[in-house]
From TrEMBL:
The active site is at residues 69, 181. GO terms for biological process: cell wall organization; peptidoglycan biosynthetic process; regulation of cell shape. This is Glutamate racemase. It comes from Buchnera aphidicola (Aphis nerii). It is an enzyme of class 5 (isomerase).
């Protein structure tokens, strides 16, 4: 199974997969050369996703792809599914769920600018009759803060508050927040700290596990990859800072892959 994201966001998806399907083997591709996807054009994201899958397919016998990124999924998932003949599972924001859970009818949706602008999200927001109650924040800054946190670097609460200011100033703040970027799962505690009341966080992690389980149900021993491999697309000093958190995910090898 190939799992990819522009950064460490997809690790939160991997964590959930490992917890629920312990015997699975995986290749994690950190496309740090192209981080952040949220600032890229749609055509770039589509071409990049195709390039990633094609490159890894040639190198390893992958039987499934997890696009562990809301930005890449909302923009390219439909195209990838048509383009490739292996199962491709994406991470797509499911806003309807928030409607069922909120108690005060105030919902927050936060994602990268590219995700918010994608036709997938725009269609769902305009279709929703309750859309007045969805407060949206489109930001490319929060994923960068998550990258810092995972490397144990300083996180500025002033910057964090600025991102959420629009919601903090509301007379009735959202009680339910949909995290529309896989990076944001690493910041739940910090986001909760800036609000003065308990927040319910939702994301698409569970549904990804459900889809993988469904696929593997009828296909025993479908895993052709026998070890766990961590790939990154660009070498920089920051990769070393990631190594200690990667231990937990039992990677047998860590290496660079050329995507340019
Ligand atoms: N983790 C990605 C997502 O879920 C986005 C981060 C980025 O901007 O690269 O949207």
């Amino acid at each position: 199974m190939l799992i990819f994201d522009s950064g460490i966001g997809g690790i939160s998806i991997l964590e959930n997969i490992k917890k629920n399907i312990p015997n699975i083997n995986y290749i994690y591709l950190l496309d740090n050369e192209a981080f952040p996807y949220g600032e890229k054009r749609e055509s770039f994201i589509i071409e990049r996703s195709i390039k990633i899958i094609n490159t890894i397919k040639k190198l390893y016998p992958i039987t499934m792809v997890i696009v562990a990124c809301n930005t890449a999924s909302t923009i390219s998932l439909d195209i990838l599914k048509k383009y490739f003949d292996i199962p491709i599972i994406g991470v797509l924001p499911l806003l309807d769920e928030t409607m069922r859970i909120t108690k005060n009818s105030k919902i927050g949706f936060i994602a990268t600018k590219a995700t918010v602008n994608s036709s997938y999200v725009q269609k769902r927001i305009s279709k929703n009759i309750h859309n007045k109650n969805i407060k949206i924040i489109a930001t490319n800054k929060l994923a960068k803060i998550a990258e810092k946190k995972i490397r144990k670097q300083f996180i500025s609460y002033i910057k964090l508050r600025k991102i959420f200011n629009r919601w903090l100033l509301l007379s009735v703040q959202p009680d339910t927040i949909y995290l529309g970027c896989t990076h944001f799962s690493f910041l739940k505690k910090e986001i909760q700290n800036i609000f003065h009341k308990p927040i319910i966080f939702l994301d698409s992690h569970k549904i990804v596990v459900k889809k993988i389980k469904k696929y593997f149900l009828n296909k025993k021993n479908n895993q052709n990859i026998k070890k766990n491999i961590f790939l990154y697309s660009k070498y920089d000093k920051n990769i070393n800072k990631l190594l200690c958190i990667l231990k937990k995910y039992e990677f047998n090898s860590i290496k660079k892959v050329n995507l340019s």
